[in-house]
Amino acid sequence: MKMTIRFALFSAAFALLSVPSAFAEVDCAKLVQSIKKAVAADSSVTLQVVEKEITANPGCACEVVKAAIEGSNADAKLVAAIVETASTAAPQHMRLISQCAVAVAPDALANVQTVLAKLDPNSGESAAVTSTAKDAKGPVPPAVVAANPLDFPGSGVGDPPVRVGNNPGGPGGMPILPWGPPPTTPPGGIVPPVVTDV
């Protein structure tokens, strides 16, 4: 009985914790409408509105960026400025902000990537480059060529050769002694021609 009451109280606490997140979604929807109206009325305050709203509501960063871009009919340069302002206001949502901006304005992809490279230069897929081509001291190793998955097995680079067919000497493979007469005797039924001295 005591465990049942504990579980009931525990689940009630989780239910109460999820209620504010439901209100946050409604606030984001209201926030989007107010941002679109404010930016459409005066597009010169776009960056100030974005910074103010994202600082106050970092969970609605994606919606704020989309609303600012759509409300101001932003060109590629303004989209990049919006992404930069939003990313500095909520750096933990930088990737989300850039993806939302590109989703609304795909023609500004290069500008958004430039802003991301400026704000977070070492966040790419590969490690940070610490040397340049001038620092190279030895020969450059040849590039590894990957095998084409449509090639025949064993024909790729570095693959061992593959034998197709039965294994010699194994079950169903080539027998130790070949079938038929020895290869030095002529086959039966064929008489060799008679050779005469001419």
Characteristics:
0% strand; single chain; mainly alpha; 6 helices; elongated; 198 residues
The total of beta strands comes to 0
- Derived from helix and strand composition plus strand pairing, the structural class reads mainly alpha
Low-confidence stretches: none
**Helices and strands, in N-to-C order?**
HHHHHH
The DSSP helix count reads 6
What's the overall average pLDDT, rounded? 75
* Main beta sheet strand tally, sense and closure: none
Terminal CA distance: 121 Å
Work out the strand percent: under 5%
Q: What spatial form do the alpha-carbon principal axes imply? A: elongated
The helical percent reads: 40-55%
Radius of gyration: 37 Å
Describe the SSE topology:
Blueprint: H1 2-41, H2 46-56, H3 61-72, H4 76-89, H5 94-104, H6 109-119
Helix pairs in contact: 1-2, 1-3, 2-3, 2-4, 3-4, 3-5, 4-5, 4-6, 5-6
Can you walk me through this structure?
The protein has 198 residues and is mainly α. It has a domain at 2-122. The protein is 50% helix and 0% strand. The protein has helices at 2-41, 46-56, 61-72, 76-89, 94-104, 109-119. α1 packs antiparallel against α2, α2 packs antiparallel against α3 and α2 runs parallel beside α4 (76-89). The chain starts with a helix and ends in a 79-residue tail after the last helix. The model has no long low-confidence stretch (mean pLDDT 75).
